[in-house]
Amino acid sequence: MVNPLPRNAVPVSIALDGRGVFLSGQNGAGKSTVLRTIGLNLVIGRAFGFCYAASASMSSAPVYCSIQIEDSMNGGESLYMAELRRARELLQASERDAGCVFLIDEIFRGTNQLDSVSAAAAVLHSLAQRSLLLVSSHNLVLSPLLERWLTPLRVERKAGSHDDMFLAPGILVDPNGIALLTSSGFNAEVASKADKVSAWLSDYLSHPKECPNLLDNSQVM
Hints:
Strand content: 5-15%
Distance between the termini: 45 Å
Structural class: alpha/beta
Largest sheet: 6 strands, mixed
């Protein structure tokens, strides 16, 4: 499939086989673009019977998305409150219509990591049990928490190319957020401090050695 909107769009192939997807990737790798491309083709295919792909097989399920949520000064709504409102709407939709498709980009980015991961795990687990869910997030710890329901895929760029992307199995193993500090004009001292903190946090938060089945209802105390 391709996205018909950008010039020189890169084709990407994906097969879901009835399972949702947890999508990770470096900053700027194209996670949001992949979700938008899938959503656009699903909606066009459902509405008109064709889509922008060499070949496609898809259901006629309703498509819901939560992409580029923003705060509202006029409405007095913070980013996190806007995200909570949209998440509640998606949960209500999943209860009305079984078998929907949900596309969620960077869920709950408007709060601290602890609350973000906790709330996201609960909401995504509920959605994934009822419908087909595709979600992107920089909170990699969500992947092992949800691996029973969501297949981990990561967006990669071919070596030496800024445009040629592809999807690979597994979660992101080489984040670039710290490297972008240097390329964005931060001095070496700041980058070095960030590296030290990253080294301390990476295994503990991003790649836990053991992940208990916290979302199994039988384990709730």
